[in-house]
């Protein structure tokens, strides 16, 4: 028998000891390679050349102080500061924008791991779930190919949710305030905070920390951290003499885009309003918001009825479901606004709620079809009405599951 060489023994010993870690590193490397390939492509993005590059060039020509003073672009201050800082680098804007997005995707992956490790106690499964989110099509396409910023506010939402599950409420509200200051779409996570206030918190049964299932709640005053962070985030533009009204009413102006930019009830998002309601925004917008309000009130009532039997897993499920409800029912949704919801839904269905694996797959497939429609010119192939039927169907299936779960106080997420 041929004697095994020392180098082979060494390599096999490394593999036997660290096979899992090696696989994770290889997956991470693959995620990096995908983004290196995507990042230089700027012609597919419907926004990069018309908006992001224009804004960065404006800061380069006029300086950061004048740029912030004129509030170039239609985002709130933190993102405007990001574009301003990009102007200081001697490279094309797509490079720093792609790098920032990928860093935020990595932060989200880390906190996906921490969230699901907290829920399941399964370290390797949770770690794989976090890394796997980097390969979800909407994650890879959004930042590196589209040059969008959804990964930025989402990573802060993941941090805030983790802190919420740890019952570190003040830290959770502060991080949520950061997410909200980055982008208005973070509002879709607000219902879970309201529900938990009404239900007086939840039981923190924790397989990892082995605690006693402590239960505590938080004061209504903790919500003030959200406007406080928003106010602080606006100071760079105020100090650059943009004006209080223009700065702090930024989100109000964004909500008016429904009328001023002619989006209709929906902008390439596969929700309810693609089913023949898109052109009736002046008639239906108010009713749509009230419909969302009614659904959330009903869900809050069901939660209140079983408030003594709410645990961390149910909190995460409710976070996913209420966020999904918002994007399905709110008017003016764009093709990317379910980013944070899908990022949570995907590992949650695989690791904790097998009953909704098929709705999860359908929602991801609909997201892929939507990106194909918006990014890759597949408008002749992708029928948004059909995509919306599947997407809304997946949501309704999950709605039924949530209602059944809340109606049975003895039933737990599993």
From TrEMBL:
GO cellular component, one term: plasma membrane
Single annotated GO MF: hexosyltransferase activity
Membrane-traversing stretches: 20-38, 97-119, 126-146, 173-196, 217-235, 283-302, 314-333, 356-374, 381-400
Keywords carried by this UniProt record: Cell membrane, Glycosyltransferase, Membrane, Transferase, Transmembrane, Transmembrane helix
Membrane topology summary: Multi-pass membrane protein
Superkingdom of source: Bacteria
Location in the cell: Cell membrane
One Pfam family hit: GT87
Family statement drawn from the similarity comment of this UniProt entry: Belongs to the glycosyltransferase 87 family.
Name of the molecule in the record: Mannosyltransferase related to Gpi18
Naturally occurring in which organism (per UniProt): Butyrivibrio proteoclasticus
């Amino acid at each position: 028998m041929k004697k095994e060489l020392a180098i082979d023994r060494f390599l096999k010993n490394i593999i036997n000891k660290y096979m899992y870690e090696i696989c994770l590193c290889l997956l991470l490397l693959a995620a990096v390679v995908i983004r290196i390939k995507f990042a230089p492509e700027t012609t597919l993005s419907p926004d990069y050349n018309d908006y992001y590059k224009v804004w960065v060039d404006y800061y380069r020509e006029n300086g950061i102080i004048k740029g912030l003073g004129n509030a170039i672009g239609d985002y709130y201050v933190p993102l405007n500061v990001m574009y301003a800082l990009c102007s200081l680098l001697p490279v094309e804007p797509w490079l720093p924008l792609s790098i920032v997005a990928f860093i935020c995707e990595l932060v989200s992956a880390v906190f996906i791991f921490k969230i699901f490790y907290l829920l399941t106690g399964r370290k390797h499964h949770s770690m794989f779930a976090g890394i796997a989110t980097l390969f979800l099509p909407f994650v890879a396409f959004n930042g590196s190919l589209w040059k969008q910023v959804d990964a930025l506010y989402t990573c802060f939402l993941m941090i805030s949710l983790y802190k919420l599950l740890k019952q570190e409420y003040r830290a959770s509200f502060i991080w949520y305030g950061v997410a909200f200051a980055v982008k208005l779409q973070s509002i879709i996570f607000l219902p879970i905070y309201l529900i938990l206030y009404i239900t007086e918190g939840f039981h923190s049964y924790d397989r990892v920390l082995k605690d006693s299932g402590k239960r505590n709640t938080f004061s209504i005053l903790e919500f003030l951290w959200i406007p406080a962070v928003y106010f602080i985030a606006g100071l760079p533009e105020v100090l650059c003499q943009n004006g209080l009204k223009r700065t702090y009413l930024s989100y109000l102006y964004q909500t008016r885009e429904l009328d001023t930019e002619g989006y209709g009830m929906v902008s390439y998002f596969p929700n309810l309003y693609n089913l023949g309601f898109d052109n009736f925004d002046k008639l239906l917008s108010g009713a749509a918001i009230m419909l969302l309000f009614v659904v959330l009130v009903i869900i809050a009532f069901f939660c209140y009825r079983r408030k003594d039997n709410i645990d961390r897993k149910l909190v995460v499920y409710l976070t996913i479901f209420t966020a999904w409800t918002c994007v399905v029912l709110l008017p003016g949704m764009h093709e990317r606004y379910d980013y944070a919801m899908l990022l949570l839904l995907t590992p949650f269905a695989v690791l904790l709620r097998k009953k909704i694996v098929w709705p999860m797959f359908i929602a991801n497939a609909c997201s892929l079809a939507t990106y194909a429609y918006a990014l890759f010119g597949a408008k002749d192939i992708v029928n948004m009405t059909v995509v919306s039927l599947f997407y809304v169907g997946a949501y309704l299936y999950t709605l039924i599951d949530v209602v059944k779960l809340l109606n049975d106080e003895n039933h737990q997420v599993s």
